[in-house]
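Person: Please work through this fold.
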Amino acid sequence: MSYQIELRHLRYFQVLAEELRFRRAAERLYISQPGLTRQIKQMEDLYGVQLFERTKRNVELTPAGRFLKEEVDFIFNHLDMVKHHLESIGQGKEAELRIGFIGSAAHEVLPNLLLDLNQKFPDIRAVLEELSNSSQLDDLMNHKLDLGFVRVPTVPSGIRKLQVSKETFSVVVPLDFPIDQHNFKSLTQLKEEDFILFSSEYSSYYFNLIMSIFEDHHFQPKVLHKSVNALTIFKLVEAGVGVAIVPSGLEHGYDLQIKLIELDRIPQRTGLYAVWKENNRNPALTNALKSLKVKD
């Protein structure tokens, strides 16, 4: 066979796999539809597998096509990472470190890491993005992030983790709420209240952990609202919409008319984990892990 796979073939395949319509994919790629069809046929002939199931109305990925889509996404994400690193080197920077985090990491763990990096490795440029737990893990797998901070103890194969903090939970109530840390006895005192909780989209593990607290107190909470954002939850509590349960570390960093009642007598604890892709070769990640005092 006289031709070989080139990056343009992989890009054609990637766009068609996203669109699953030859006409729309060809328009995105600025090539003719017959030309796209020909390029895909060349790929299938070279690999010896069918990548798409075609009917008059539908185009679907075959199992081989789904596998190739994951690999192609990885290739292009990795090439983007290489491009960013080359740009950083060209600007006199050592490297770029892409960090994902959930809101609670921004209060202490993340600032401490950035301060340490700035002192020890001033040429590292950190790019920060607040993301959900699941989005961080997906982006780590696809090499869109170098380091993440999540509240999930179980991570996919190929991801490493380090627990960087462990803390209690606290009930969040309005500042003028009649119950406080001194007269609080049990969560059952709040069984008639409306609760505002972190959504399961934040982390299904975390949501189930919170629900286990209620189970231990033998009642199901009246969940009025759910959110993935701590500030949203706190603002709703401040407005008197309901009460909440959050990690105790979230007490810092907000100037709101609320108070936290620590649940220090229950067994449930929440951990914050640093997570990274095991085969990530970004030198800035290596230095960041040193700042986190990672031990093998």
Summary: The two ends are 48 Å apart (CA to CA). The longest helix spans residues 63-90.
